[in-house]
# Entry
Amino acid sequence: MRELPSEVRELDREILTFIRKGVDHQDADQFNRLALRTFELQYDHIPLYQRYCERRGVTPKEVSSWEEIPPLPTDCFKAADLTLLPAHTVSTFMTSGTTRPEERGRVHYDEGGLKLMDATILEAASTYLFPDGLKNLILIIAPPPQRAPHMVMAYGMNHLKEHFGLPRSRFLVEADGFEVQDLVDDLRRSETEGTPTAIFGGSFGFVNFFDYCRQEELRFHLPFGSRCLDAGGFKGRSREVGRDAFLDSCEEFLGVPRGYCVNLLGMTEIASQFYDNTLCNLHKGVTAPRFKVSPPWTRTMVVDPDTLEPLPAGEQGLLRHFDLANRGHICAIQTDDMGKQVENGFEVYGRAHEGEARGCSLTIDEMTRVLEGG
Amino acid sequence: METIEVNGYYLPPRLRKGIKTFRTEVYQDDSTTLHLKIPVVTRAIVEELADHLKKNREEYLAQLPIERIVAILDEASRRWLDRDYPYRKLALRTIPVVTGFTPEVVEASIDVEMESSLGEDMWKALCSEIANPLYLDDFQYSEELNGFRRAFGPELIVSFFSENIPALPHLLFMRSALLKAACLGKVAAGEPTFAPLYLKTIEDIDPQMANAMAVLYWPGGDEAIEDAVFNQTDAVIVFGGVETCKALMERIPRRIRLLAHGHKMGFGVIGREAMKTENLKELAAAVAYDHSMFDQHACLAPHCYYAEYGGEVTPQELARTLAGAMEEMEVRMPRGKISARDAALINQLRGRYEVQELNGEDCLLLPSSHGTAWTIIYERDPGAFSPSPLNRVIRIWGIEDIFQVLPAIRPLRPFLQNAAVAVGDEREKEFIEELGALGLSRITAPGKMPVPSMMWRHDGITPLALLLRWCDVEKKEKIE
# Structure
């Protein structure tokens, strides 16, 4: 494949340097400079985005701060290709959660973009997931990348496994589904051998495993230094599991204390990941409430769900992220997650709840269930 | 900030003292705090109430001539149509706080509901369903039978309202009264203020009739209460989503007559001959009205309008003219407040269609200038039906031929209810026949979707006749 254009390579080098300075390095001016340069590049080379910005009267010349850069709603990735260098695509990640292919968002990565993502994965995980530098046996309740090449979670967790995993670390969802007995066997062995073990998976994968443990009357007491990483939360699921109940289950069934349980907010449309601050704080000896951290190469703001105007700090609204590692598509992303800004990060509540009593018209949820045969 | 206290229930006067425990629900908007007083309902209360309602029905309502009942209900509707009627004024202050609808929408909905609930409408509805309303009073000679015939309504009808459409519950109280049945309405948590006020009106006109009517709230699915209710009733009417209806139906004993009105959806179809320049403004205003009433929350509201290509006016032009009509509507009858989730859905949908439009696809996004007040999306019909997130999100789907609508809506057969149809040429009859065969129960003109008459066979059934039991006497001579 052809080499990336030199201006892109140059920018990537600088963003990479910025990311590799780690999560404690704050340089707002440099962040802003890089954000504006990336915006200009995306504006110049993604004609669709250019038209989108023009409609809002925004051009790179007039923009002086990353906050003014027009964000794209996540659903745009279901409808159009918004890739900086489409001819250089090496990986494509897709959103899940529906059986209708036209309802899946797609994000394409070139080689340089993928390197940026890889760097964010390592930098964030080494602070928020493995601040103790302890290697773990990593057991992943997800399919390996070969089986799920378009699943960004599989890609990211594989990367973590390669860098932070002991030998025998592995994925546990294969052709026949979740190999629950393998997980049980591995966990027993870790108990006996005293191997610190990390379980990774989608939040619902954990819940299903806890259900299994309850039914089979299984309890584990994993060695000190073991941890849980759950991704995704419970949005869009019929069954709601509260965060507290989830953490109780980690303790009850796995013997992993709350401080070692980390939730990850990752999105197909955003290259970087947002981790809970819990384990990092525990390691530093800091007591602080649990929230998600926006690493220094990202920014998160909260906007009014109706007007999309920024809200004052502390108010609840929709989360909007800006991610330098999104160089390969669009940096500013408007999500439909509800949340609240806190210092250096945010709280996320998942999708806002549907109102209790409504009209008598068939709702979008009911109709979608009918149309998808669910 | 103004504080209003209202009752979220209605009980016959004699029973009011019996309730000792109340709780207060607090609702708030920018200018008003509403304290809604709700009794804590127990099995014993429900049992006593049902006894009371049935007894009063037998002693009074069942003996009232149908003409008198119609006159009382007519008087109630007329009072509500009077702009200075105190209960109406109160409802316009309370319902918006609870539901989020604007006072303009609530006002329009009261007008629409009450204008179609006058004496003449009730009489016609009775004639249409049971031929002779006097069958409800006494044995009447029937020529076909060559004998005498009389209709008996249920003793007690229990209605479950699971939605927040203002002014809808009164329809069920009207229907029950027309059948000379006592009626207990179980209101939704989302809109418990209108029905109690309506029954106060009945009480003011004829306190004895109101003695056979009640409105209560209890948490849906409370088996102790609901089983007690089912023990005492002989008819149940349910409004609600698939899950609500299913859960209730599983628990209702078989001897009870049951009418279930699940959530439904509507749409519009405009044929090329009806896409004319001369009436474009009127057409757009009609389409705007259909989508704006109840902010699209009612089952009568359309999710989309199909517009055929090849007429004088293109579907795109219709969409553009509609934008003007929606702008006017926002001034005259603004949309209510919506949840963060609903607003987020609309903003995501807008983003998606905007990039498609900018990408040169055959679609058009026309959003309100501020916030999510209204949204129009034109696109070439994708063939598969996509629902609207409601709250004044209008989809205009361009189609080559109106008959292409049929396969697209076929998967939604159990939910089809209403369609506005303007074909404008000789295909109309065949098209309407096809829609009827698919499962539609009401076909009307654009601009008329939110206003069915009382004669409408609601969801394709005869809502009055289905609850009656008949007694035929095969005897030619008068019964003495």
